[in-house]
Amino acid sequence: MTVVPAQQTGGGGGSSGLYDVLELVLDRGLVIDAFVRVSLVGIEILKIDVRVVVASVDTYLRFAEACNRLDLESGPRKSPGLPDIVGEITESGARGKSKGALSGAAQTISDAFSQAREEGQSESRPRARKTTSRKRGDEE
Amino acid sequence: MSTYVYGIAARSHPSLPAEMGGVGTPARPVRILEEGELAAVVSDAPEDLRPKRKDLLAHQNVLNEAGGGGVVLPMRFGSVAPDDETVTGVLAERAEHYLERLQALDGKVEYNVKASHDQEAVLHRVMSDNPELRALAESNRSAGGGSYEDKLRLGEMVAAAVQNREAEDAALLRQALEGTAAAESVGPESTGWLANVSFLVDRAKAEEFLAVVERIRKEFAHLDVRVNGPLPPYSFVEPAPSEPAEART
Fold this sequence. Notes:
The complex is a heterodimer.
Chain A: H1 15-27, E1 36-37, H2 57-74, H3 82-92, H4 96-124, H5 130-139
Helix pairs in contact in A: 2-4, 3-4
Chain B: E1 3-10, E2 31-35, E3 38-44, H1 53-69, E4 72-74, E5 79-81, H2 84-93, H3 95-105, E6 108-117, H4 119-129, H5 131-142, H6 148-178, E7 183-186, E8 195-202, H7 206-219, E9 223-231
Antiparallel strand pairs in B: 1-3, 1-4, 1-5, 2-3, 6-8, 6-9, 7-8
Helix pairs in contact in B: 4-6, 5-6
């Protein structure tokens, strides 16, 4: 869980701070007809992260893969109580019995996600998603 | 020489940041223009002003500094008047409106809250909440991962479940926070977050507001909550529910 300082006061304004308030500075605030506005053409900081959750074949396959691995390693222990156990593990990191299997699964999923995220980002510029057709080809 | 405008304040504002470095390279010094009961925070406008990181930060910093001493109506980045007289002319012409806004926002600041899912944690949660998903994953697994179609079906269901969860958590977040806020304004949706909401918070209640954020972080470990503030009330400068600065109470 990322910890971000709750207070960001004047003068500071680090990079993440600016990124997070960018849409406020650019799209909110007072506009007065008698003034002109500087052109926003060419603004390069306005990049939105490509998230994993988008409706694409690649995403679905990655989710499926992550789930497949999750169940393999947590086995029959996947019960309604799972979220609690997972919560405890993320917090303490040392809960004897279930730790090995579950955190292993968590790690696997985490890997799948960061992989997905990296690929998503590198693909975001040229919007080509050739992988889809390739994977389909492999399957047949 | 055209004039760059940062914001509008009451003339009685105790500490407007005159002489502070503003936009441009070198940074143009901030000046204060006064007209009746109002004051405008301005500087000379650089000829080639573009939304560069350094200038965006300068705009933001001047407003933060001014906002620290009292309420300021922040301008959107990049507002340029042909000259100082145009600025004071606007202040004179719309004095009543700006004074009303300044009064309405007096003692209040904006907090922008963005939340996203901790991916790993939300997947665990979605799987354990949904027996059908678990069953499907199980059958795929026993079939050695399942066929391409099986995988696709499972993945699509998981993606949908995660998206439902996003909507639920966004609503939950707003419910938890709106109690301590005077107004809220929903920002643009994006794939970068599941919630993007600005809250107008009384300075006296800021601590309480941040305490609620902390509570949410603890209670919902699968949520990654980012808070930016106190900020000038960017999202609340317009009174009526019009265009993006829509304030809901």
